[in-house]
Design a protein that fits this description.
Bound molecules: flavin mononucleotide
Number of strands: 13
Distance between the termini: 23 Å
Order of helices and strands: HHHEEEHEEEHEHEHEHEEHEHEHH
Number of helices: 12
Strand content: 15-25%
Shape: globular
Radius of gyration: 19 Å
CATH architecture: Alpha-Beta Barrel
CATH topology: TIM Barrel
Largest sheet: 8 strands, parallel, barrel
CATH class: Alpha Beta
Number of domains: 1
Structural class: alpha/beta
CATH superfamily: Aldolase class I
Helix content: 25-40%
């Protein structure tokens, strides 16, 4: 079915096509026959549950951050079979993001460049999209993560407060928090991966997490999402800060600013590259993290997965779970099913 819809979607500007898909999914998902169809066709009855960072994930395949930025269609997306969905990146206050156009497809290479810059309706909006614990509309068997970032106008030295505000707001709504310090599209954000800044940020976040854990009597793992562009030295520094503050895991990796593996190495668009060309870059980061932490730091592997073999490579490199984004755009929901059937 997606093979028929794709040419139509690919005639439209990528961001408009994406917003249209999200709206259609939300509308279609409210109709019970369509929910039943999606569930029957995509949902896997047999699970391979994965214990990861103290959580039990129904299966190893998740949707990466950026697809459902405001948390408006995670229910429908979960019907495609994902074991977890990472909403966001959400910032404390709403913001417009960078000027459009800001998403570019490269179908021959199954690649995307985006420079969105965290457009979104803000944390107060997103929190309303997720049911409170114990509420009647409780969610099915799906793990929800919230990927959090800072607002564009927040100075780097004040960034911790933005992350803390989000942590507090989402603490009792989601199953994990992903700290995004690696998007290339918010000026200066990636500086937060530097040892001192990262250590400072994580110390503040982890002590707030520990306080909330006691108050609410509920653990909430925190993961840090890293850039695949870190040099070996920068990676060592970041890992020192991450392990030194007892962060629960990492997500490797975000998009790259490099264009090495793109056939047209200068497509003339700034932003983060994702999809097939970043597959090796991301796997190599996972392998390095796994070796440097002696396998003791849980890793979610993401970047260029478009087949079960790609996912297997990430897991063999040390990832306990995988996520997809660009593969879903180019191959459609069938990819989730393929991954689940073959992992
Ligand atoms: C259009 C687009 C928007 C994205 N937005 C975010 C985001 O808001 N936060 C984030 O952490 N990652 C974001 N990402 C990165 C993805 O989560 C993922 O790390 C990256 O695309 C690599 O995976 P892939 O090759 O499967 O796409 C975005 C990616 C794309 C293509």
């Amino acid at each position: 079915m997606y093979r028929r819809i794709r040419p139509l979607l690919f005639c439209i500007d990528p961001e408009r096509a994406h917003n249209l898909t999200i709206s259609l999914m939300a509308a279609a998902g409210s109709l019970s026959p369509i929910r039943k169809f999606l569930r029957k066709f995509y949902f896997q009855k047999t699970y391979n549950p994965v214990d990861f960072a103290g959580l039990s994930f129904p299966n190893p395949v998740g949707l990466a951050a950026g697809y459902d930025k405001n948390g408006v269609s995670w229910r429908e997306l979960s019907l495609l079979g994902f074991g977890h969905i990472e909403i966001g990146t959400v910032t404390p206050r709403p913001q417009a993001g960078n000027p459009k156009p800001r998403v570019f497809r490269f179908p021959d290479e199954e690649a995307i460049i985006n420079r969105m810059g965290f457009p979104g309706k803000g944390a107060e909006f997103a929190v309303k999209m997720i049911p409170k614990p114990g509420c009647s509309q409780a969610r099915d068997n799906i793990i929800l993560g919230m990927n959090i970032g800072k607002n564009e106008e927040t100075l780097i030295e004040d960034a911790a407060q933005d992350y803390i505000d989000c942590l507090k707001l989402f603490y009792d709504r989601v199953d994990y928090i992903a700290v995004n310090v690696s998007s290339p599209n918010t000026i200066g954000l990636r500086k937060l991966q530097g040892k001192d800044l990262l250590e400072g940020l994580l110390q503040e976040l982890m002590s707030e997490r520990d306080r909330l854990q006691l108050e609410l009597d509920r653990p909430l793992p925190i993961f840090v999402k890293l850039s695949p562009d870190l040099s070996d030295h920068e990676l060592d520094d970041a890992l020192e800060a991450i392990t030194g503050t007892s962060v629960d895991g990492v997500i490797a990796a975000n998009t790259t600013i490099y264009r090495e593996n793109l056939l047209d190495s200068d497509p003339g668009e700034e932003g983060g590259l994702s999809g097939k060309p970043i597959k090796e870059l991301s796997t190599s980061l996972i392998r390095k993290i796994h070796r440097r932490t002696a396998g003791n730091l849980p890793i979610i592997g993401v970047g260029g997965i478009s087949s079960p073999d790609d996912a297997r490579e990430k897991m063999e490199a040390g990832a306990g779970l995988v996520q997809i984004y660009s593969g879903l755009i180019f191959q459609g929901p069938r990819l989730v099913r393929d991954l689940l059937e073959n992992l």
